[in-house]
Amino acid sequence: MVYNSNLVETERENRMFGFFLVLPLVIIIITGNQLRARGFYSADDISALMKTLYWVILPPLLFRTTYIAGTEVLKQPNLLIASTLCYILTIIVAYIGSVWFAHKGDVKRVAVSVFSSFRSNNIYLGFPVIQMAMGEAGLHEASIYVAVTTVSFQLLSIAAGEAVLYGRPSVSGILNMLKKLARNPLIISCVLGVIAASFSFPIHFVFDEAMKLMSGAATAVALLALGGSLDLSRMGKIVKILSSTWFDTLIKLAVNPAIMCAVLVLFPIPKELFQVTVMLSAMPNAVNCFILARGMGMDSEYAADLVAATTLLGIISIPAWAYILGMV
What we know:
This protein is an all-alpha fold. The chain has a single domain, classed as Na+/H+ antiporter like fold. The chain has 13 helices and no strands.
């Protein structure tokens, strides 16, 4: 009886830790949002934060972690196969559901549905969550995931959205995306990290410490920038937003990570990488879903509501997935 009581207490503590895993992140996100709302941060300031994170802080983090991972990135064919299969299956489920009942007759919303079905907020929210739950070891695995999956992640989502809007993916759109990927500092950092590790290129401890200090700022800057970029003034209409986005919210926060779990059973990878991969799949929609949806001619207002809804409900879904995956 004592043993059972202790076991129940331990499980209760684990669930509570799952909640507290997200709470510090939520506090920083709200802080960033309030600083923006009260004029401390302007739109240009938030843009500068994101630009600094994207071009200055994250590249050293990804280079260092992929360098430490070495050629392990090249030894994960199952991750590439499983993630690509997951993306395709998620697109199919989102398309069928949105065409048949969720967004019947609304092509622009169907396009948002398939485009955003697996586009997670890996950088601004996923990395901080992984670091909180697993520390440096988690970031190591997260870098492998980013390095292996980014190209298929970007191309499949863009192609799916354009296929719904125009009947087929546009060649110019795909070529433009490939050009952007070739200039993406996150991809370049991962590639350089793998190359440096492959040739055993020595990294002086001074530069290593500089990269470590730089990457240490990633979590706080990412969450402040995320908070400043979210329009929480729309949360006054939260019931309306949740009622209109429930289908795509369900796809993003539950169906997509569940599909990822299933395909990784067929194409197994190491346990820690499995946990990180599924956890990143369970993240809310990326803020750039709204930006890209607007640029591609989709229903950008609906995309903005979807980002807000998944981010809000992520307070519940992230601890739930952390518990399911045994990360807490």
